[in-house]
Prior knowledge:
Two copies of one chain form a homodimer.
Chain A lengths: L5 E4 L2 E5 L10 E4 L2 H9 L6 H18 L5 H16 L6 H16 L5 H31 L6 E5 L14 H10 L4 E6 L6 H12 L3 E5 L4 H6 L5 E4 L3 E3 L4 E4 L2 H10 L4 E4 L5 E2 L16 H4 E2 L2 E2 L6 E2 L4 E4 L6 E4 L2 E3 L3 H12 L9
Helix pairs in contact in A: 1-2, 2-3, 2-4, 2-5, 3-4, 4-5, 5-6
Amino acid sequence: MPVETISWKNKKVRLIDxxxxxxxxxxxxxxxxxxxxxxxRTLQVRGAPAIGIAGALGVVLAANSSKAKRFGGFFKDLxxxxxxxxxxxxxxxxxxxxLGRMECVAKxxxxxxxxxxxxxxxxxxxxxxxxxxxxxxxxxxxxAKLVKNGDAILTHCxxxxxxxxxxxxxxxxxxxxxxxxxxxxxxxxxxxxxxxGARLTTWELMHDGIDATLICDNTAASLMEKGKVNKxxxxxxxxxxxGDTANKIGTYSLAVLANHHRIxxxxxxxxxxxxxxxxxxxxxxxxxxxxxEVRSVLGRVIAPKNVKVYNPAFDVTxxxxxxxxxxxxxxxxxxxxxxxxKLRKLGYRDENxxxx
Amino acid sequence: MPVETISWKNKKVRLIDxxxxxxxxxxxxxxxxxxxxxxxRTLQVRGAPAIGIAGALGVVLAANSSKAKRFGGFFKDLxxxxxxxxxxxxxxxxxxxxLGRMECVAKxxxxxxxxxxxxxxxxxxxxxxxxxxxxxxxxxxxxAKLVKNGDAILTHCxxxxxxxxxxxxxxxxxxxxxxxxxxxxxxxxxxxxxxxGARLTTWELMHDGIDATLICDNTAASLMEKGKVNKxxxxxxxxxxxGDTANKIGTYSLAVLANHHRIxxxxxxxxxxxxxxxxxxxxxxxxxxxxxEVRSVLGRVIAPKNVKVYNPAFDVTxxxxxxxxxxxxxxxxxxxxxxxxKLRKLGYRDENxxxx
Lengths: 356, 356
């Protein structure tokens, strides 16, 4: 059963504080965009689709807080808030996609009363949530066909219910395969520094009764060499036009290792994670985060306090290392430059991305 | 300056408790082999050469505690203790090498009074320490030639002064290069689960004024892809006849990644880490350690308490991924089956290894 990671409750945004899981389950209520911005920045809500939803609901909060009586003033308020929300995290494209879409909807209704536009914006944000749910289910159905009895699957970070409005991207595939009666086991990379694998993915898989085994990130290669892993499923924060994919730091490492051991490497991502404006992964901005995340583990210092740190939150996997990309519009394979052109025609609205 | 990781003080073994570093510097005094066994098992002392020294000094403790008056009884006591010490950790060959060497020395002096044999055993253990110091220096001199100005070097785990009686294997090379005025920087893998890189290697490098940057284990591939690393130096826990090398979990991963990115991958190990009795890495027993090490970080639980864990302490890097092996007898290159045959003739005493 998917958890309700992020939702609209009593005119506020309610989200699970993912920094406290798995030991504490606690909701955060955001009734202003500063609180929401902080929730995104500090990873209380994370995962590309969930961040997109947070952005859309943030626009609703911003709209509702505007006291402007006319569209000009209202749109100026909205725009300022959208720019602020866009500054929370740079890599996952879903945030900019959702913010751009909300802005377009406001603009398209500029002739309506402000109170009406506010309702329309809420409706659009809820539609984004519904669409995300539906796309999770569709990706899962396509992906589940790739899971066979006896598989030993490796995953990295968290591409589950906590990263989306429903049951996830990479993990959604596994939940659906389980529902179809497939027997398989899953190895979970702990995913330093923020331990999304250890804290969130194991929690979700165990909750669903899936056989999950936690490993340190540096153990994946050894598992592959021993033949203990035969498929890899991960999510994505941004996919370029040529299929190059940004995802949590360590994903590129897995892709190279999978390639060396001839293990299929699958990316699962909704259309909202694609960025057709950029030619390749070189154009994806990679967030570098605070040294504290590496120098300490959940607040406990593990290294000399003043040691230098390099802490990129993401890396880019070149398309040639990706066996297939699973989307809600089907499974896409090499050459991605050609196959993703078809995807673009099927469901992509380019004009919605302007806040990168 | 090397730290005195393990030494013989006032008829006892004194060692730095490495589980408390870098935050606390504390010595442990072992005056019985049970305390020493626990120190080895719990990684209070670790690193293949240092474990070998611990084993040798343990034999001295065991000898001194024997109340036997004749060689038969004395040797029986010694043998029991040696077997017990050998059960502390299975992978690093240096332990078995040192225990075997001490046993041979006892046997070779079976005609002498027990009190005399005890003195000879202490002398032999101190000789092992001196030899380790000398071999650290020699390895460092050979290896330092490979370090150039402007290098960006990656290392994994701790192959420094804390792993040996002097200034280390992999890190010894860097200390020597620094002493020779080379300018370079070092990236340090944190090395989950026990964080020897984050806790020990950064501490040693910073102490020596070497430019050190800490990264999570899963970040190494991304660094390589960006061209930010051009050489890798690691230690070894056991090297087989064909050059296959067991070292801290994650080393094999680095070797595959280095190979993909065409980055030289160097192993630095004294002759006491070679096991010529085994043909390949397949014969090296790999220690699996407690799930707690992965489920928690320095005592802080980071995952569901009952999650399954796979926690091998080592992996095996096949010889073809190793650019060169640096020993105190010189630098050895492919094909290792041939080059290591020469090393064997130069300084290896096969009969000393019987407690594996």
